[in-house]
Write a structure and sequence with these properties.
CATH class of one domain: Mainly Beta
CATH topology of one domain: Immunoglobulin-like
Number of helices: 1
Largest sheet: 4 strands, antiparallel
Oligomer: single chain
Low-confidence stretches: none
Helix content: 10-25%
CATH superfamily of one domain: Immunoglobulins
Strand order of the largest sheet: 4-3-6-7
Shape: elongated
Number of strands: 7
Mean pLDDT: 84
Length: 148
């Protein structure tokens, strides 16, 4: 009777070892997980800016093929005319505003007040339905450094 139990015990152990080996080696290629591929968001094109008084208005065209675009993020870098950044140093952009993408509009506008004595650089990024961001638009520079 002891021999029969021992044989059954070792039989189950060998089945478990074989199943774990099959599970380890039979599940496919080992690699880091890769997110599913999405079509890139169309970049914002034709960004222009105008200054009227102390209000900057940015305008750009909405791409008709921008079906996956949920909205836009407007980014601004503000540099002092008295203490400009070094040549070749990157600008530090901060979020100036977020806009939803009105699917019926051909053009989109963003406005904000700016202070004199600074140079402002703007760019816009499209935002997808999952919160992903597209490429930067062209940059617009608003120079109020000569005004005090």
């Amino acid at each position: 009777m002891q021999r029969g139990r021992r044989r059954a015990f070792f039989g189950w152990i060998s089945v478990l070892v074989a199943a774990s080996l099959i599970g380890m080696y039979g599940c496919g290629r080992k690699a880091p997980p890769v997110p599913p591929r999405r079509a890139p968001l169309p970049p914002v094109t034709g960004l222009i800016g105008r200054l009227e008084g102390d209000v900057v208005t940015l305008t750009w065209r909405r791409d008709p093929a921008a079906g996956a675009t949920r909205g836009y993020i407007v980014l601004r870098a503000q540099t002092s005319a008295a203490n400009p950044p070094c040549a070749g140093c990157p600008l530090i952009f901060q979020t100036a505003g977020e806009l939803s993408g009105d699917r019926g509009a051909e053009t989109i506008e963003f406005s904000e007040s700016v202070l004199p004595g600074f140079i402002y650089t703007y760019k816009v990024q499209p935002v997808g339905s999952a919160g992903d961001r597209g490429q930067d638009s062209n940059r617009v520079i608003i120079d109020r450094s000569a005004e005090n």
